């Protein structure tokens, strides 16, 4: 398919390749700088030529005596007589030489007629003469001659002891002087030369500079393209790494020390992005796996009591004659399984709420008072086990009382499940470290094996399945406790020794740090 012409033109004027853009913009900037330099060089050269030519012409005028320029007898003619000065000098065809009379009129002093002569106004000549009298430097002027060509013009005062004159252009002799007209005269000798040859010299220099600049740019282009290609090699490596990266391959990395600061920073950012993506995908896979395990465990836990209840119901429906003690046993079993299933569903709903956005009702609470309030209930749960309390008084903080009670109850029930009913010992402690309160629940159970320790707070995880089945646990108590404490801004830690027991530490900040409802 042939592309329209405007698309081709757009691709040429606005290339999409980074290499082409860098090359085009660099050449554009270089060409602009060279043009500016050439323009400045042209004006500097022209000004230098003008100054040099003006100095040469001024030296020529100084070496010419006025007596040779203008004959004395011609200057002594009365003002009312016609003044027909006869040129006495030959000058080059591009040079004009003239005398400015006291009335501001111009008289040519050359025998060449090929070049026109520039003429200023009488006021301008008067200003030039006044500058000379005040010893100011008279700068050359660029004036158009009678043929429309620019001429560089310099001036010299026509002042000689033998040529007395008036004070200025158009000024009469002083009254009572008694001197004849023409005994003294003051005027200007003007020399001009065409600027065309000087401009041609400056223009030739400019053309030479531009030609050399074009050759330099062409040579630079040939050298610059390989350099740009080598400069963009690290960027091409990043492009290849990006092209090879997908959800199944996030191990790809690019070197971060490529010798270019910007590219190194891009490489570092790209590697950091890949690392974050890898962690995110890993976390997502882990979350999916946990969800799969959670669904399977929840289904299993719910199916067990339902199966038991269903079995007892079938037995009751099939038995036409059943003894009262059998009926009571079946009903008690179904009631226990229903309680277990209800507790499991409540725990699952609690975890779902904690996963969304934990809502806490924070109040200023005495922590030691809260534990003492639970003491009778805890002693009933412990059965024949020995229970002791070591509670520091005066510790209070902003907590959700109901959720903190649930945490203490879960930890205590966990200790009950893992200790002997007769020789078991459970200790509840509370103390402060200044900025946080530390609540501990210790037991003298068998401890937790090293391979189980990282998983104790996972949902449905049980290190001893038979023990959990016996006591009706589903492996959600520690997971719920962890979520509640984290909602308060605290942490839970566990320390254990095989054969000696396990201690759970709950660390709570004494300042409010939760999400009050």
From TrEMBL:
SMART domains, A to Z: HAMP (SM00304), HATPase_c (SM00387), HisKA (SM00388)
EC number: 2.7.13.3
Residues passing through the membrane, by range: 22-44, 206-227
Broad EC category: transferase
InterPro entries: HAMP_dom, HATPase_C_sf, HATPase_dom, His_kinase_dom, HisK_dim/P_dom, HisK_dim/P_sf, Sig_transdc_His_kin-like_C, TCS_sensor_his_kinase
Predominant place of localization: membrane
Membrane topology: Multi-pass membrane protein
The entry's keywords: ATP-binding, Cell membrane, Kinase, Membrane, Nucleotide-binding, Phosphoprotein, Transferase, Transmembrane, Transmembrane helix, Two-component regulatory system
Domain Histidine kinase: 297-512
Catalyzed reactions per annotation: ATP + protein L-histidine = ADP + protein N-phospho-L-histidine
Keyword Transcription: no
Compartments, record wording: Cell membrane
Name used for this protein in its record: histidine kinase
Species whose genome carries this gene: Paenibacillus physcomitrellae
């Amino acid at each position: 398919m042939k592309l329209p012409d405007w698309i081709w033109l757009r691709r040429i004027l606005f290339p999409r390749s980074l290499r082409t853009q860098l090359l085009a913009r660099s050449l554009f900037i270089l060409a602009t700088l060279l043009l500016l330099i050439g323009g400045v060089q042209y004006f500097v050269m022209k000004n230098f030529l003008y100054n040099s030519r003006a100095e040469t012409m001024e030296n020529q005028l100084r070496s010419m005596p006025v007596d040779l320029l203008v004959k004395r007898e011609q200057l002594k003619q009365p003002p009312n007589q016609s003044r027909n000065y006869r040129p006495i000098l030959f000058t080059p065809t591009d040079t004009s030489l003239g005398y400015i009379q006291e009335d501001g009129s111009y008289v040519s002093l050359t025998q060449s007629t090929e070049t026109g002569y520039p003429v200023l106004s009488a006021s301008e000549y008067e200003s030039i003469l006044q500058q000379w009298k005040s010893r100011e430097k008279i700068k050359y002027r660029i004036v158009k001659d009678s043929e429309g060509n620019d001429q560089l013009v310099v001036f010299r005062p026509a002042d000689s002891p033998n040529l007395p004159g008036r004070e200025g252009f158009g000024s009469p002799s002083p009254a009572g002087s008694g001197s004849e007209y023409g005994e003294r005269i003051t005027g200007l000798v003007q020399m001009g030369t065409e600027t065309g040859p000087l401009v041609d010299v400056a223009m030739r220099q400019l053309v030479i500079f531009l030609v050399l600049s074009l050759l330099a740019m062409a040579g630079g282009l040939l050298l610059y393209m390989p350099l740009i290609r080598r400069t963009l090699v690290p960027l091409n490596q990043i492009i290849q790494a990006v092209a090879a990266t997908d959800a199944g391959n996030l191990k790809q990395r690019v070197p971060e020390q490529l010798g270019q600061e910007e590219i190194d920073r891009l490489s570092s950012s790209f590697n950091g992005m890949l690392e974050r993506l890898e962690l995110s995908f890993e976390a997502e896979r882990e979350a999916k796996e946990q969800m799969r395990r959670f669904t399977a465990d929840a289904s299993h836990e719910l199916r067990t009591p339902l199966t038991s209840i269903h079995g007892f119901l079938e037995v009751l429906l099939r038995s036409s004659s059943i003894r009262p003690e059998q009926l009571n046993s079946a009903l008690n079993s179904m009631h226990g399984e229903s309680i277990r299933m209800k507790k499991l569903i409540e725990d699952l709903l609690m975890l779902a709420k904690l996963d969304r956005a934990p809502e806490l009702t924070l109040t200023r609470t005495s922590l030691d008072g809260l534990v003492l309030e639970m003491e009778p209930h805890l002693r009933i749960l412990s059965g024949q086990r020995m229970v002791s309390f070591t509670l520091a008084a005066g510790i209070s903080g902003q907590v959700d009382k109901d959720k903190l009670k649930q945490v203490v109850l879960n930890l205590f029930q966990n200790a009950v499940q893992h200790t002997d009913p007769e020789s078991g010992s459970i200790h509840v402690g509370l103390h402060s470290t200044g900025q946080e309160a530390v609540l501990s629940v210790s037991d003298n159970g068998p401890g937790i094996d090293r391979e189980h320790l990282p998983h104790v707070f996972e949902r449905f995880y049980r290190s001893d399945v038979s023990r959990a089945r016996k006591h009706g646990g589903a492996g959600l108590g520690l997971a719920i406790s962890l979520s509640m404490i984290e909602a308060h801004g605290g942490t839970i830690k566990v320390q254990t020794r095989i054969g000696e027991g396990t201690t759970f530490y709950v660390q709570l900040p004494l300042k409010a740090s939760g999400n009050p409802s």
